[in-house]
Amino acid sequence: MRHMSVISRRVAAAAVSVVLVGGAAAACGPKEGGDAKGGGAEGAPKKGGTLTVLNSAPQKQFDPARLYTSGGGNIPSLVYRTLTTRHRANGAEGTKVVPDLATDTGTPSDDAKTWTYKLKDGLKYEDGSPITSADIKYGVERSFAAELSGGAPYLRDWLIGGDSYQGPYKEKKGLDSIETPDEKTIVFKLKKSEGDFPYFATSTQFAPVPKAKDTGAKYAEHPVSSGPYKVIKNAGDGEQMTLERNPNWSEDTDKERHAYPDRIEVRSGLSAAVINQRLSTGSGPDAAAVTTDTNLGPAELAQVTGDKNLAARVGTGHFGQTSYLAFNPAVKPFDDPKVRQAISYAINRTSVVNAAGGSSLAEPTTTFLPRQKPLGYTPYDHFPAGDKGDPAKAKELLKEAGHENGLEITLTHSTAQNRETSPEIATAVQAALKEAGITVKLEGLEDNDYDEKIHSFDKQPGLFIAHWGADWPSGGPFLAPIFDGRQIVKDGANFNTARLDDPKVNDEIDAINKITDHDAAAQRWGALDKRIGEQALTVPLFNPVYKRIFGKDVKNVVISNWTGVLDVSQVAVK
User: Fold this and answer.
1) Bridge partners of 464?
2) Neighbouring C-beta atoms of residue 382, cutoff 10 Å
3) Four-point Cα dihedral 146, 7, 88, 323, nearest 10
4) Helices (H), ranges, 107-227
5) Using CA atoms, how far apart are residues 422 and 356, in angstroms rounded to an integer?
6) pLDDT tens profile 428-484
7) Ramachandran angles phi, psi of 188, nearest 5°
8) Which residue ranges does the record annotate as region Disordered (predicted)?
9) What does the CA dihedral 193, 198, 204, 205 come to, rounded to 10 degrees?
């Protein structure tokens, strides 16, 4: 999907919220099914009480059309139900897509170009009125309006007529490619095969919106809830939100969300240090508090690890994301595969992991796809250099490339203190390459300037630090935006920085997209990742690990590999 510098933060904020912003080397990657660790206060979860959410980033976009979330988001999925949703379970089990408003995950036909859904019986909004297929159609159509931009852009590419549709405010007729033959049936007609459609149908663009109650750009302030909670207050551009129980939500129609707390208070705009201190201390309301976007740092983690009571309140999660070095072969000397291979051999992943916070917070990887089976992870290491790099092999390749006296290059990075694309990582790369005779000049840019430069086709640097995260647990939204030649964008945000336009790669992407068996598709994505990796178009560095503390009265902690973070829909505080 879109680049992690933009998206992972949304996905982490909304799902982790990541878009908007996790695999590893075989010896140290997470074990499937056992890599998410939660816990919580003793005793069975009960209904009642108030849950407090302490976050750094405010939930600025809360309109379902404007949200860019993975699996429907975290806080958003308390208010918005969608056709499908993520399974609320720990680890790998939580990467499955399951029905939500629909009776199943969708019926494909015409090589997965047509998807049909039937709605469950008894679905109601917060005011007791019924949810219909027309409301879902209208909700999708709203996401095309320029006034409500910001959501995931797939439907513009996928739906017939989506590339020119301007939304229901300008085009009253709506999209012919979304059919509603009756109040409980909705059919989507696509331009191309998309076997992953059930996964994308978890996004909030598929939340129902009753046309008569649509207030346009103000809808986020008082949206009509289809989920277990309704919005009582949304102030300060999402900085303060209050949610209360929706009396017309029924657990009989919703097997995924529990809705234990009576009330949820979201407070954002806080520093990471303040959040972690309040959660650790756990006094007053903070005893029943969590965070959905703030990690423990290395120093905090060391302190927590030394206290068994605090350590028992740390959840560990893995989200499908990779931090890597990106090459632009249009810039010399990166047009030479031997130079790219030399840099691949020179990288010291031990020092990079240390710069990212240590082995508890980052896991080294040599594959572009993260180490998760649903993504298609297939082990490979085309340029084996051990944990600390192989500068001798790198020098040998540089000599073959005509650079026997070394090389001078520039590495662009962000100045954001995120331990993913930041100065610490850049400095570690610089030191490793120096051992191989490569002198690296560092170009640090403020976040906005960094995003603009690395996404601009004309301005893209020859070498920069990037990261990419999965919009859903599949290899498709991981590989296609980066390596599909038809997604090279010259007049907008370009993510295929390698300029790879290989017909065989493009054809394989199309072939896999026709597969509706997710396990079968995953094997093909993994094989494609391994094949592309031989060209040294990127240097995979590490996959992040989320370590987040929660309040001492929090029960029923569930952390899936879809989001990598605590799922607020499962939490109880009594």
Assistant:
1) 326, 412
2) 13
3) 170
4) 133-142, 154-158, 197-200
5) 9
6) 999 999 999 999 999 999 999 999 999 999 999 999 999 999 899 999 999 999 999
7) -110, 130
8) 30-49
9) 30
